[in-house]
């Protein structure tokens, strides 16, 4: 498995709300937020600079409280190690597109509010004979494995009588290469999240959205969840999260 870098954002947090806050070193706790650096536009590196919605979200959570200070580092690990790192308490929070399955919620804590919503559609090349969802019968549609996209596509396909053949890929580069080479007929995705591929490969959507899937922050520790959830709620209520979405995606993807 190819190794990817993980962006590790250390939040030095003065923990309040669990009794009196003490202005001392003993009341300061270090939280680490991790997200992949190859998940554009959520989080990625460009010319050595960390960019993306997830990076800006971490900074925004930091800015909600004067006692939050952010230090950004990078470490090497597998993409699949995000949850393992959370389980072992290597990370305190992960910003990711991992779907909140029952199994996940039995093991971890998801944020009280989503930080983003994916509006998922079937996308095909402009030259494709597929123009409606009814045209998808016996076609091959691809998705990334273990993502909200795969969950939504599986559920939609089951509801429609399993009319499509679902193909699974581990990364966008391989998935869209397969589409370009004609190995698959289409993909499922959120247009704002894969706008570069849509433009470069001249893709178009088919029919209406098949699902709207929420994305959550994921925690292991209840105290961490309480502190970060409070900050998340503040940036939702203030409109700061909406403004960030408009700046990064050009649309409000927070509701």
UniProtKB/TrEMBL annotation:
<dbReference type="InterPro" id="IPR001638">
    <property type="entry name" value="Solute-binding_3/MltF_N"/>
</dbReference>
<feature type="domain" description="Solute-binding protein family 3/N-terminal">
    <location>
        <begin position="30"/>
        <end position="252"/>
    </location>
</feature>
<dbReference type="Pfam" id="PF00497">
    <property type="entry name" value="SBP_bac_3"/>
</dbReference>
<protein>
    <submittedName>
        <fullName>Amino acid ABC transporter, periplasmic amino acid-binding protein</fullName>
    </submittedName>
</protein>
<feature type="signal peptide">
    <location>
        <begin position="1"/>
        <end position="25"/>
    </location>
</feature>
<keyword id="KW-0732">Signal</keyword>
């Amino acid at each position: 498995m190819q190794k990817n870098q993980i962006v590790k954002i250390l939040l030095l947090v003065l923990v309040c709300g669990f009794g009196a806050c003490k202005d001392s070193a003993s009341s300061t706790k270090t939280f680490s937020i991790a997200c992949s650096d190859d998940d554009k536009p959520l989080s990625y590196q460009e010319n050595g600079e960390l960019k993306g919605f997830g990076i800006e979200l971490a900074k925004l959570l930091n800015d909600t409280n004067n006692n939050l200070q952010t230090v950004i580092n990078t470490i090497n690990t597998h993409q699949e190690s995000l949850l393992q790192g959370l389980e072992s308490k290597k990370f305190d929070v992960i910003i990711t597109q991992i779907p909140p399955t029952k199994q996940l919620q039995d093991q971890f804590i998801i944020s009280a509010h989503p930080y983003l919503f994916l509006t998922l559609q079937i996308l095909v090349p402009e030259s494709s004979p597929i123009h409606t969802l009814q045209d998808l019968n016996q076609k091959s549609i691809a998705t990334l494995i273990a993502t909200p996209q795969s969950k939504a596509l599986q559920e939609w396909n089951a509801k429609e009588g399993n009319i499509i053949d679902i193909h699974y890929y581990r990364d966008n580069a391989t998935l869209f290469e397969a589409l370009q080479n004609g190995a698959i007929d289409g993909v499922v995705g959120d247009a704002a999240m894969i706008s570069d591929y849509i433009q470069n490969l001249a893709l178009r959507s088919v029919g209406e959205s098949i699902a709207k899937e929420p994305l959550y922050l994921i925690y292991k520790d209840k105290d961490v969840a309480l502190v970060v959830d409070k900050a998340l709620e503040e940036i939702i209520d203030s409109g700061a999260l909406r403004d960030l979405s408009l700046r990064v995606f050009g649309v409000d993807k927070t509701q």
